[in-house]
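Same chain as my last thread, 839 residues:
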Amino acid sequence: MAALPQGALLPEAMPLLRLSARFEPAKEVAPWLAAGPGDSGVAEAVDNYLETLHIVNVERNGNIIYTWKGNQGYTHIGLYDHHTEKNQHLYTFEKDLQVISCSVNSEKTLLVSKCLTLLIEIHPVNNVKVLKAVDSCIRVQFLYPVAETHSFLESRLLLISEDKYAEKVDIRVVRDGQGVVIANSSQLSRERIADDLIWAQWDMMEQRLFYIVPKESLDTLNCIQFFPDKNFKLTLEAPLDISLADIALKPMNLDYNCHQDREIIPKPLNIRVITNETGGLCICYSLIPITSEEVTYSVLFLHKGYSKTYTVALDEMNSLEGNDLTFLNLDYYVAIYLPGHFLHLLNTRHPDLMCYSFFLTGGEAKINGLHASTIISPLKSTVFDRSTGELFTIEINKEALFQFLWNSKCDTYKLAALHCLLLHIGSTREIESQVIQWILDKTSICFTFDPMQEFIIASSYWTMCLDVTNLDKLLPYTPLLQWNEDFPGIICRTQIISMPALKVQHCKDFWEKLSMSLECVKYSEPYLHFNYKMLQKEWDNLLSEERTEERTTYMKNIFGNAKRVFSSLNMSNVEGRLVPFFQDEDNQQQLLTGLMVAQLKDHLARHLQYIGTKNMEQIAVDYVSKLLRLIWQIMESVWKKYNLQSHTFSIKGQGNSQEVAAFHIMCRILQATNGMCMPLPPGFHTLLMGLGVRCLPLHTFLHYIDHGVLHLTEMNAIKLLKELDDTVKNEKLKLSILTRLPEEIGHKICHIWSHPARSNAVARNYVKFLLEKCRNKQQRMLVVDGLSARIEFLPLNYLINILAEVECQGWAASVQPENMNVKLVEELALKHTTMLLGL
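reply #2:
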């Protein structure tokens, strides 16, 4: 999506979820049927064949198995190869059958279908073996291990029966001429996997079987993981805080079966297990509502230790069936979709704050191209429309997210869209640039969150968490701690649930991430995130405490960290940059940069011991470098937006409207970084000071300095003293700057301005030096008070009052007592008096 210019009008709202056709029978199968596979052979009958076509399975490799009725009423089984985009006729039953489940092994030599559950040799023998002779619903599924570990001579078959059991069948084959046949078909190896299951769901992509078994206290969700070798293990037991004993559950989730839903017995519970790659494990379920005025559904976030139950008020409608509500697995999100009413996208990775989820109604809740109540989500990011036989890939529409950013009046939608763009779509340079443009144009209308903080934290989080396992548990993904606003028309209740138990040790991939998530719950996850408040506390200590030898060594290490961060930035492109950063030193920002690296490294060391000290140091350096790069990137966009020059500002003259706008944006950046105790690139304060001199009245400029908005650095102080001439206005400005300079800077540059006003500052400094020799402040004040009562000469009175104020922001005496010109002090006092009285 191209970047949108300021004030641009957007087109009509796009659907948030976008469909891409993955399998369309009329397109992928119809031309092949017209050519006459099997006993079809009559092109005119293709439309009739398509009406009887049903998908019965999608294998792990993407191949689609479907059935259709031929011109003699025979039942045909075909396969659409996802990679070659070609069809293959697998088998023909010379009768009219309802095949509700079917699977083929990866070599396409063995076929199993639910027709008395037949195991069929496709070729060359076409031998048929009955695996189960009871006419009940069965899910048949060949296991698909990774290709490089698979043995061609053996296939493993999973049977999930409506008779409340699951078993594994090992099928060995031998070569016979040009094909293969089943070896010892009379004695196939069978192994019972599970008993007493009341519900089951097969996870095709991850080769996992989820099932629910009744227990005396609580029903339990179990999971069996099948591995590339012949092994399988019970990996999970999760007690459910819901009782399913009195609910008529479908015994298994067949996904593609359109016949099972036509049964007369009502199935009031709609339930689905959803996992994602980050270790998220959710159970979504809903009951058929008693009334048509509201619908209730629950999501158990097992990886978080709590559940959320949502009640949504509905408009009056004629009917509402349990399967009208669909749960769609979008990996990072689970979508709860009730066609014609609402679309709720729940962030499963960070479900604690509702502001990172979408709740859409009306036209915004449409998913174009789907029928009302015939959709399911058999695979991750996949939707199957049973009324048309079409299979779609479903994804969150990036363009629609940008529309939410630019058009939404609700902060919740803006924040949800921003979070989804950066943490789900991915914080690429293109997305970062478009988000920055939105921030520059629209940030003033955000009232409940700081978009700059969210952008910097979320983008850094996504970038750093790509390659390092469990780092996402330790870095902050948001600056928000709470969110108190509710969605209109929806009520949410949160409950603590029983923690699941992992039954495996030294697990990998999903189970390792789930294990880490469960550990985080035990230790109260928010406290695992890097704490900016602790960084702020240490930062304040460094600025205020006295320097001991030990502390000086620590400070050297801190500055060494900062040097590594600056070196890690892409300094080779600095010459092409518009914003003149890193051209002067800012000791405070260098100190904060190095301190953040040190604090982050210590934080990681408490939880990531296994990755090594050097790796932790590099992670800390890379994270802080990313923060600085994002701030630099924002500033580059500001310079381009307002067409500012690439050279350092001249502080002479009056700032134009573009410079004023840039100044205020920089102030917002400063506010955002101060709120999170983030460092700024050296040179930021010099630029901000230069803009402030040009764009602000003198009293406002000094007010900004006194309140910490503008920070005096050595470079901007030198520029002020050198570049401004000595007009009355500039004289006041220079003198005001000199009196506000930190002590260490004042020592270096006080000689640059050769002017009586500068000597005045030196004189005041000298008298302060003398007064500080007094033993205590009370004695000094008594002396001053006594002198004030006896002396009537106004200039000297004024001088004494000035000297009595021991200024906290001054610097130590820059001259020795024997070099002080007392006559000059008297002249300066008289000059100040005449200036104040307007004489």
